[in-house]
Amino acid sequence: MKLEVGRIAAAHGIRGEVRVELWDGDIPLLGRELYLEGEEQPRAVLGVKGWRAGAILALAGMTSRTEAERVAGKRLYGETSQAPALQSERYYVHELVGCAVFDEQGDLLGTLQDVEPKPAQDLWIAKGPKGRYLIPAVRATVLAVDLEGRRITVRGGGVLGPDAAG
């Protein structure tokens, strides 16, 4: 199983570097191999620089801005076996996706589909029969996460949705 590390936001410079929104900026990337969404073979991380929302990465085989622009919006994955243990109340995306999301009254809102990193906090996206819900990943909104039971409980007042576009 692969662990989603982040998403490529844009090309950076003219040498094929990419700006990456990282799920966890504490994971060391230099020298690791990452899988680019849609590719079977991993790419070595040849260089890492700090960037406000993540990092600027130099990936093996990517040497021009044109190549970097082609991969904008794609996700980067690492091997789950290399993932460090997280502190309490922190989760990897692959652990959360697929969990059933309930409000505090026990009503099913839907299933967690995705997590979007944002500067202030991550935004969890659930989809259910009534539409799509946007859930700020903060303690005031996320009341409980039970990974074994594949269940997330949220405070309904902090959740945005459902939207009809779902």
What is the fold's blueprint, element by element?
Blueprint: E1 2-12, E2 17-22, E3 33-36, E4 43-51, E5 54-59, H1 65-70, E6 75-79, H2 93-96, E7 100-103, E8 108-116, E9 123-128, E10 131-136, E11 142-146, E12 151-154, E13 160-163
Parallel strand pairs: 7-12
Antiparallel strand pairs: 1-2, 1-6, 2-5, 3-4, 3-6, 4-5, 7-8, 8-9, 9-10, 10-13, 11-12
What report would you give on this structure?
This protein has 166 residues and is mainly β. It is 6% helix and 48% strand. It is built from two helices and 13 strands. It has helices spanning 65-70, 93-96, and strands spanning 2-12, 17-22, 33-36, 43-51, 54-59, 75-79, 100-103, 108-116, 123-128, 131-136, 142-146, 151-154, 160-163. The strands form two sheets. A seven-stranded mixed beta sheet has the order 11-12-7-8-9-10-13, with no helix packed on it. The protein has a six-stranded antiparallel β-barrel with strand order 1-2-5-4-3-6. Strand 1 (2-12) and strand 2 form a beta hairpin.
Please supply descriptive tags for the structure shown above:
Elongation Factor Tu (Ef-tu), domain 3; 2 domains; seven-stranded mixed sheet; 2 helices; mainly beta; 166 residues; SH3 type barrels
Brief characterization of the structure:
The protein is mostly beta strands and 166 residues long.
The helicity comes to under 10%
**Low-confidence segments:** none
Total helical segments: 2
- Taking Cα atoms only, what radius of gyration do you get, to the nearest Å? 17 Å
Q: How many structural domains does the protein architecture include?
A: 2
Average per-residue pLDDT, rounded, comes to 87
Order of helices and strands: EEEEEHEHEEEEEEE
